[in-house]
Amino acid sequence: MENYFLILIGTVLVNNIVLVKILGLCPFMGVSKKLGAAVGMGAATTFVLTLASGLSYLVDHHFLIPNDLGYLRTLSFIVVIAAIVQFTEMFIRKSSPMLYQVLGIYLPLITTNCAVLGIPLLNVQENHNFIESLLFGFGGAIGFTLVLTLFAAMRERLEGAAIPAPFRGSAIAMVTAGLLSLAFLGFAGLVK
Amino acid sequence: MRTLYKFHGGVHPPEHKEESNRLPIAPAPLPKRLTVPLRQHIGNPAIPVVKVGDQVLKGQMIGAADGFISAAVHAPASGTVSAIEPHAVPHPSGLPDLCITIEADGEERWIERAPLDYRNADPDAVRLRLRDAGVVGLGGAVFPSHVKLNPGAPAGIKTLVLNGAECEPWITSDDRLMRERAAEVVEGIKIMAHLMRPEEVLIGIEDNKPEAAAAMQAACRGTGYEVVVVPTLYPSGGEKQLIKLLTGKEVPAGRRPVNIGVTCSNTGTAYTVHRAVNHGEPVISRIVTVTGNVLEPRNFETLIGTPIAEIVQLAGGARPGTTHYIMGGPMMGFGLDNLNAPLTKAVNCVISASPALFPPAPPPMPCIRCGRCAQACPCELQPQELFWFSHSRNFDKARAYNLFDCIECGACSYVCPSHIPLVSYYRFAKSEIATRDMEKKLAEQARERFELKQQRLEREKQEKAARFAEKAAAAAAAKAAAAASGVEDPEAAAKKAAIQAAVERAKAKKAEAAAKAEGAETPAEKIPQGDSDPLRAKARAESYAASTENNTDS
Amino acid sequence: MVFLGIVLGAVLGYASIRFKVEGNPLVEKVEATLPQTQCGQCGYAGCRPYAEAVAAGKAEPNQCVPGGDNVAKSLADLLGVEFKPVGGGEGSGPKPRQVAFIDESTCVGCTACIKACPVDCIIGASKLMHTVIANQCTGCELCVPACPVDCIAMLPVKENIANWKWHYPVIEIKKAA
Amino acid sequence: MSTSILRHASTSAGILTAFAIVGTALLAVTYLVTRPIIAETEKQAKLALIGQILPRSQYDNDIIKDAALLPPSAELGNKEPTPVYRASKQGRPYAAVLEVVAPDGYSGKIRMIVAIKADGVVSGVRVVTHNETPGLGDYIDIAKNAWIRIFEGKSLSKYPDRDWKVKKDGGKFEHMAGATVTPRAVVKAVHKSLKYFNANRDNIFSLPADSPHP
Amino acid sequence: MSDSTISYKEIIWNGLWKNNAGIVALLGLCPLLAVSSTVVNGVSLGLATALVMACSNGAVSVVRNWVPNEIRIPVFILIIAVLVTIIQLAMNAYMQPLYLVLGIFVPLIVVNCNVLGRAEAFASKNPVLPSMVDGFVVGFGLTLTLGVLGAMREVFGKGTLFSGIDLALGESARQFVITVFPDYQGFLFAILPPGAFLGLGLIIAGKNWIDQRASKKAQMQPAADLPPSSVTA
Amino acid sequence: MSAPHVLTPDRSVSTIMLMVLGALVPAICAYYYFFGPAILISLALASVTAIAAEAAMLRLRKYPLKFFLFDGSALLTAWLLALSIPPMAPWWLIVAGTAFAIIVAKHLYGGLGNNLFNPAMVGFAVLMISFPAFMTQWPAPLMLSQHPVGFTEALQYYFSGTLSGVKLDAVTMATPLDTLKTQLQLQHAVSDVQQMPIFGAFGGKGSEIIAAMYLLGGLFLWQKRIITWHIPVSFLATLILIAAVFYGIDGSRYASPLFHLFTGGAMLGAFFIATDYVTSPTTPRGKLIFGAGVGLLEYLIRVFGGYPDGIAFSVLIMNAAVPLIDAYTQPRVFGHNTKAE
Ligand SMILES: Cc1cc2nc3c(=O)[nH]c(=O)nc-3n(C[C@H](O)[C@H](O)[C@H](O)COP(=O)(O)O)c2cc1C
Ligand SMILES: Cc1cc2nc3c(=O)[nH]c(=O)nc-3n(C[C@H](O)[C@H](O)[C@H](O)COP(=O)(O)O)c2cc1C
Ligand SMILES: Cc1cc2nc3c(=O)[nH]c(=O)nc-3n(C[C@H](O)[C@H](O)[C@H](O)COP(=O)(O)O)c2cc1C
Ligand SMILES: Cc1cc2nc3c(=O)[nH]c(=O)nc-3n(C[C@H](O)[C@H](O)[C@H](O)CO)c2cc1C
Ligand code: SF4
Ligand code: SF4
Ligand code: SF4
Ligand code: SF4
Ligand code: FES
């Protein structure tokens, strides 16, 4: 139990996938101009990432490892992810048009979020069991959502700032991400 | 004692009322020339009803109210209309506006003045009287009183609030008025109360005007009206703040006091109501405080239309060191560029400003988000956020943070340690947003008309096609008769010829006009030259172009 | 692997046919942002076609000249792309508003301008003088070339007290600098 | 309509499947080609690492082959069976290389290999992975500092238990000022592994070689 | 973009500067930031990416006419995944130390949006050779950014350049390591993730600055850069 | 000539900054008294660097130097940074930290009023993660030191990196927080650890008095209405509350609330750092949330995290949340949500 809790804290804060593990930066930079969009992206990612993390564990342990097909890992994970995204999109489109309105446009973007592949690969690397994999995916996604939301709010505020011309736009966003990452380093050591 | 409520924030700048409130109101002499703007109130400007050269009597209507939200303007003295043209007016833009200039003949011949027995008259007749007497709110917004004094709300009016707070520093005109003419003010209140039928009448006066409060109290004896002394805290005279102070009610955002059964009027307005109804005198003068860096600060009862320069002279003229003049109080007033501008109903104070009295603001620093402005804002806004968004032209956000609830009181700028002219940013953002909204509306209308036109064209095309098909059938029948000739449709040919002729004619006319006007340069000038008098035509064209914007309802 | 391939292929093939693009709500939003001048300066036959092109990603959002940078910026925000000023180069505010003015003494009543006006704001009948309803004129200038006698001019709307706007506060601190 | 969808879908599926099959085949070929090379490289890497603490000249067996799995033990700090590599010279046990984990580093686990000669003397220690603070705790890494060599030649008989501490705690082991947590953990782990070795020496050398997957 | 009008010059200009994947398009950022703590790491991964992109673009261009539109993307992803895995296996076999350093960022080339993006935007519409060039150039643009960022971080962080080159080129290459500041304390910030973000921010700003200078239109809205009192002296 | 035409006479940005600087003086005096003159060198170094960096950036950005250079904010950043890092550090450490704070954390964002992160704390955090060795070596209180360092000696150390005769170790030691943390890891009880000479009555020896001086200065600022009570109170209250809970659970492993209040940067943080206008929320509710957040993180990092004190990181993390907090804690505006008719 405590172990699971630590995994959550660890992935959300200490080893935040964006700021410390450096994964998922493309959506982090791309979908953080508006707070609303950031929240939507976070929600969509949370859903897909958790699912991908769990499913790829199953694929790895019930298909690849028994057949000694480790070299097909990348290939099969990416296929699984693409399928999940596709199914999710179709599913919520049918079942909840409301939800689709909110998350629909972000779903396709998730395929190119490298965290979605990175987390399953890290699961393999760190030998997580099924529950741990799920939590790792979930925690990672929550961490992603957290910093994405903070970051989007900051970027909205920066719109009015007297930033020197060359730094306006993505440059200052990068600097901000850097300082945010610096702040998150403060969590180091919280979970060993 | 009535329980007083509190509004958030507020500031207490040095009062500087002593300078001008010691001496009684002095009548101002008649100036030689009076310039009466047609736009002295919110709503449509008045329409001139006299011509250049006309003789007018004192108090004669020279501009009639145009529509419901409008008010009349009157000749402040008898004399001759010498001009009806744009003239400098006291306005923050510094732009001229249409005015009627009257050369006073010094005879002071009045129109016939008839009191109206308001108690027995139809309320609408009383309101009509107010409108034709040009009675507007003198508290600042110059809103036509006949519109306001209408208990339109279904629930009726519960409270009539008389605003005698005069919370701005330096100004003392209401103070002196209440001290000296309390009885007449109360007469005006009676008329207002008669029109509104409120359950209670409250007169709010700041505690730095004990004499005025005492005088009003005395005058109110037996009327049931209650004089309430409120703490001196700017902007307690703001309508919404005063209502909150006195009744504890908040006027909902974007609504008017009538929506919560309250009406608020300035005490000076009450006085003019009394003069208009009980004496038949239209609003041709007002009490104005002349203070600041002048020799003898004092209040004067001055005719509308008197040039500000002369008003300054009344107080002995400006002392050396005067750099500019402020119309209104130092918190909400604006700087005046042109002293030729005349006094209007809206001007309650003229301040001669010198660097000693009004040190120029140091250059603004960036906002450090200290939050002092938010602590001072009577509307409980977050001025620093409004500034952030207005400054960066993020208008959607500015609106979302309730920019339009800002009453532009200036309390925030007053306390800002960075000396940022916050209100200027809010005004900029507000007018920018308003323009965009209007443009949006116009665009929407344009789109609708465009689509209508498309539909119409489509329909016409179909009809034409149908007709053509019919015709074709007919033509086929008559094919044998019609020899295949190259002559085109005679109808079309005739039309073409006619147009050609017209074109020739027009060209000739134009050449003639061009010869007369000697050298037309810009196309804008080229066009009106067809008119017999090129200059007039140009003026016409310009005023035409300018007129487009005000016709769009607000 | 093969199995996954089959499943995925089938699903995608099905999905792509099943959910062919439905009406794009973006178009409406884009159109609502455009000034509806219908002038065609964007290179499209009016605002709607331009809106459709923008929504489909076929046109840059900085082509509407009357809208100026304000519109370009709103569109860029809407589409989530980097804002580029109108005309590529130096930024431009919206064009100062102007309206068409028909010199009635020269007008020959040919109705050519009526046909040209996309928003039907010229009134007049054949062979009679025509007048522009100034309020409704979008200033698109389409009527100007249509007139055979050159009697239409575009007049800038002059600033007066009624349409005056508060300016952006610029406080000069020259002496200090 | 629906049949055409089906046909369409099955075409798509067919093409996709074809690509999948070709791709997989390509991968399989590459895998088969590279597998031995990868295995060899890994072995060389391991040998090189061990070679740092146990000179190749000192033994003559294939140390990678002669490996056995040890059951998890608290002294080694691991929770899963870990390999022990045994070096022998002319058939006589010469030394063992243990994989040891120090769980209480400043920021997490420190993984090390410890080579202990048959007589219980440390031949060498290397840190394999660690997360210690760069510039502070990372002097345990041979790439940064030679500190880790202080264990060479140390044994339980040379130092009694109370000396197996950093100087600050009254022991015999040097440490850098301002970073005592890390060396404390390392010293403790080496100490425990020595004890483990002493207690299980016979077992270690007599376990059958099962050449666990490296 | 018809086949005949592709100018290689334009491809190169776009890929290396104008639309540089790392600093303008802001795609493929994770590997960019994660592995750029030294020049060697950065450039190696960059080259691996460029290689994948060249091959994947080529492969996509070859098959582009056989693939129905709706399964275009999955097919491309498949191709890319296969290529990446091949590179991964090859690196593991021949450059194992480097492979271990780069860690999961090698397989993550699969989800690098640039790879799919170029396949989709360019290769699926163009013949093989330009596609391969395009793929390589875009990848090389990324490599350049990685190299610059890596150099910045390495010099500031460690005071060296090309450290770890032995991982890529073997032990004998160790002599190429340059020590820029001898006796350097090491500015760890530059090596850690925050330094990566900040460094990239600086590079982007540098590019903006150069661009703004080049086209004199650095006319910024006065509103944004100046304090409330626009200094218009 | 825009309304209003009158302005508060008594307050400008520079007077505010000067008052805050003034409020730091008692603590600096105490610092001098307990830890020697080195702090003065740190302050001077930081001040010079800050002014130079500020001037350079203003010049580059073409701002008029006159108004901005002497607004006092750069000086304040410098002082707060200098007070947070150990005196007796090499000169380049202070210079690098201050320059980073002013250039990156302040001016890249547009200078005064525009920065998202507290510049001083950015400087501190950068130094902490980059040079932890220097950042954890604090001089011992004079009364505990075998070798009290004088002014010239300190100066010599700053620039040459050596002390004549003694090793630096002789004059520095781990701080109370640090000591407590390492000793607890060795399974000592809090009460035993607190018997060590470096501990004072309830905090560290000497440093508890400095903390009290910060408290004094903070109260002065509050009395002058330069800061509001919200942030300090919610910060300290949260810290006390959490510390009390853990203290209650196991008093031998968790130090008392009083200890937490008077050690490390808690007081400095509560009154001078978390209250920085620019980087804290402006709404009252936002301030309470912000303060509580800083307090919570401060305790977490201090007690469970890797760094000896968490004030810098907790402030930075909460800085990042400020725009979000501000957006969601907007107070009700006059006339909104009233029960209209
Ligand atoms: C556009 C506008 C419309 C108004 N309409 C009404 C109204 O219908 N009834 C009314 O009693 N007052 C009306 N008012 C008057 C306001 O309630 C208020 O008294 C006036 O704006 C003066 O307020 P101020 O001087 O505080 O700005 C209106 C004011 C404005 C500006
Ligand atoms: C900030 C502010 C301060 C005001 N102060 C006064 C005042 O002191 N006295 C006053 O009569 N009106 C004052 N007004 C105008 C009132 O809000 C309100 O418009 C007026 O009392 C309505 O009366 P009227 O229609 O007769 O002008 C102030 C308005 C604002 C926005
Ligand atoms: C950011 C930071 C990182 C640290 N990293 C380490 C480390 O990796 N290893 C270590 O032994 N001590 C590290 N320390 C120092 C410990 O906290 C502790 O102060 C030190 O080990 C005690 O050493 P001393 O007893 O020699 O003073 C670090 C301290 C800080 C602030
Ligand atoms: C009450 C108060 C606290 C401040 N605290 C800090 C601080 O912690 N760090 C800092 O760099 N500047 C601080 N400043 C100065 C200034 O606000 C700061 O430099 C700005 O963040 C720069 O934009 C403070 C100013 C005031 C008035
Ligand atoms: S008072 Fe001035 S500096 Fe302070 S928050 Fe308000 S606008 Fe900003
Ligand atoms: S001017 Fe507006 S924002 Fe400023 S204090 Fe007055 S109401 Fe509030
Ligand atoms: S340029 Fe703008 S206004 Fe003109 S047609 Fe195009 S979108 Fe409409
Ligand atoms: S009148 Fe002329 S300028 Fe005005 S909208 Fe019609 S065509 Fe355009
Ligand atoms: S490379 Fe990681 S999300 Fe794009």
How does this model look, in words?
The complex is a heterohexamer of chains A (192), B (554), C (177), D (214), E (233) and F (341). Chain B has two domains: 26-353, Rossmann fold; 369-484, no CATH class. The two termini of chain B are 43 Å apart. Chain B contains 16 helices and 17 strands. Chain B has helices at 18-21, 123-132, 145-148, 173-196, 210-220, 239-247, 267-278, 308-314, 372-376, 383-391, 395-400, 411-415, 422-477, 490-517, 523-526, 534-551; strands spanning 26-27, 33-37, 47-48, 55-56, 61-64, 73-74, 79-88, 96-104, 159-164, 200-206, 226-230, 262-266, 285-292, 298-303, 324-327, 334-336, 349-353. Chain D is α+β, with helices and mostly antiparallel strands and 214 residues long. In chain D, strands 1-2-3-4-5 form a five-stranded antiparallel β-sheet. In chain D, strand 4 (108-117) and strand 5 form a beta hairpin. Chain F has 341 residues and is mostly helical. Chain F folds into two domains: 11-173, no CATH class; 176-328, no CATH class. Chain F has helices spanning 13-35, 38-60, 65-69, 73-84, 91-107, 119-130, 132-135, 151-160, 168-171, 176-185, 190-193, 207-223, 230-249, 257-262, 266-273, 284-304, 311-328; strands at residues 138-139, 172-173. Chain F has a two-stranded antiparallel ribbon. In chain F, helix 1 (13-35) runs parallel beside helix 4 (73-84), helix 1 (13-35) packs antiparallel against helix 12 (207-223) and helix 16 (284-304) packs antiparallel against helix 17 (311-328). Chains in contact: A-B, A-C, A-D, A-E, A-F, B-C, B-E, B-F, C-D, C-E, C-F, D-E, D-F, E-F. The complex binds flavin mononucleotide (3 copies), riboflavin, iron/sulfur cluster (4 copies) and FE2/S2 (inorganic) cluster. Residues 100, 116-117, 119, 121-122, 132, 137-143 of chain C line the site of one iron/sulfur cluster (SF4).
